[in-house]
Amino acid sequence: MASLKRLRFQIQRYVERRFSTLLLALMAVVFILYSFASMGTNTAKVHKTEKDYFTEYIQSEANPQGKASGANGASGLDAVSTHNFNARLLKQYVKELYDLRPDYELLAQDENQVEYVNIPQQNGIISKSYLENSVSIPPKWLEEVRGKHSLVTGLLREKVKEINKEMAAKVKYSNNHPDETINMDSNLLFKSRGNGAVIVGGHANDETWLALISTRLFRKAGGTLPIEVIIPTREDYKKDAEICDKYLPQLNAQCVILEDILGLTPVIKKFTEESESIEAYIWNRFNDIKKEVAILMSSFDNVLYITPENIMLKPMEHAVFTKQLFKDKGLFVWTDFGLRKTLVDFYKIANVEIGKKKKSEFGLPLTPEVIENLENLSNEVLQDKTNFHDLEGTLPFKQSESSEIIIDKRKHLSTLLLSMYYNFNGHGIYHPLLTGEKEGYWGSKETIIASAHVLGNPYYSINTNVDSNGYMYDDEYHGVSMLQYDPIVDSYSYEAYMKKFSKKGLSKLTWKNYQRWLSASSERRSPLFLNMNNPALRPIELLRDGHVRKENGDRVRLVSSTSYFDNKLETDIWRVMNDYMCYLSIDCAYVNKHFTASQASEKKAFCNQDMKEHLLWVSS
């Protein structure tokens, strides 16, 4: 019996030892498999690393709360058929505008030459007399331009009537047949849906690179609007294909190649009577008409148009398009630094009547109630003693700025087409008329607001003054950027000011007094855009050409802190530029014109030294 117990005990010990061995072996196998799995995971993380990590990071900025990509964009539209339709419509409109161009041979005759004269202002007033005496326009020149202008505005007004009649009939039919689905589009309207932002790119002035930086900063600010970057030509696309195909889509943005959509080859040649064509007409003047073309050919009904030098300072949301102010006006326009010198003859050409009362006081718009209580000005005061652009019927007192426009392109189709006409015929005609200067520099920035004004289409001109932002160096101010403000906040502040001061006399209702009142509280203004154009965000030039790093080694910040933003803004700007150029080693026209494929070591040195040192300095 004892021997049996001993045998059983020995067998039990044997089994336990064998089981322990098997268990240890099994645990070892599991551990090895787990280790291999972990190694695989870690290896994947290592190989995923920097570029892939950055891709995820950038995409998280573009879509911070998991919002659907392209929300409120042009959903429900077939891209190919839409582009084809819009291209045909654009060329149809361009052909009609082309047929109504002025007779340039008549305008070029010796007896029809316009003469500009430099004369001094009296008491700092840009009066009617001053504007009339600063130019001499021959009667035949005036008659020809005015006659063609009348035909164009007549054509556009008829098209608006036709569209309104068609849409009213469709609404009536829809109300009488609620069970049917009615196509509410018109063959005279560009096909589009929803809200979005539009930027014009291109390689010639590094605009696709700038558009990428602007788009990334747009997302960092919290902006959710889908973005289209309009690329003029296929050659532009080829030089920046990586931006279009890889980096912009990460930011809920896409490139739209205009040459492909329009089916036109951008032949840049001297425009002559023998070579007239829609092709030459569009491309030879593209720089002047690009904002109108970009807006019309975009996928969106409601468009935020910005130049690629613009930086968003706060989230640009769909909500701005739902505000009653935008629904009523359909067009927001910002002011520039200068005072308006649009010639009196422009209003004669456009058949716009000028009143005998003021509609603004040194630029500040007066309310209808205030205007109603004003008396008509005497002829002497009208002629010599008041600013012409304070009078009823004139454009706003301040020049306009078209680096930022918010527009309902359906409501303002005629505005955009007339603006295109002004720019097609800008050089020598409408640009000088709108600026009051012979060369007409920057005349294209005035055409949108002028077109809306002439056609009687509603618009809202922001009353918060544009501010300059820059830096001080060697006791000298260097202006770098233009600070533009939120139009909705602007409208609330204007209403509050007029409610408080409108009954206290015109002396209170001036532009300067209003700006002083705005500056007294940060809540009365809200910055929306920082237009960095002097210089633009080209990091290689900024560092090499002495903009941010002086010859003596001093460094400067391009952006000065304000009560609205601090030094972090410029740190973000340099980090974004460093991300793309150095961290992701982007292949694009801007970088490639400075560093060819054989200059990889020079580029690496620039990134590791110049960029890194300045980024560390800016971040400190």
From TrEMBL:
Can you say where in the cell this protein is located? Golgi apparatus membrane
Instruction: List the GO molecular function terms.
Output: alpha-1,2-mannosyltransferase activity
BP-aspect Gene Ontology terms = mannan biosynthetic process
GO CC terms, sorted: Golgi membrane
Look up and give the membrane topology term: Single-pass type II membrane protein
In which pathway is this protein known to take part?
Protein modification; protein glycosylation
Q: Which Pfam families match?
A: Mannosyl_trans3 (PF11051)
Q: Which InterPro entries match?
A: Alpha_mannosyltransferase (IPR022751), Nucleotide-diphossugar_trans (IPR029044)
Which UniProt key words apply to this protein?
Golgi apparatus, Membrane, Signal-anchor, Transferase, Transmembrane, Transmembrane helix
Q: Which family does it belong to?
A: Belongs to the MNN1/MNT family.
User: Mind telling me what this protein is named?
Assistant: Uncharacterized protein
Native source species: Pichia kudriavzevii (Yeast)
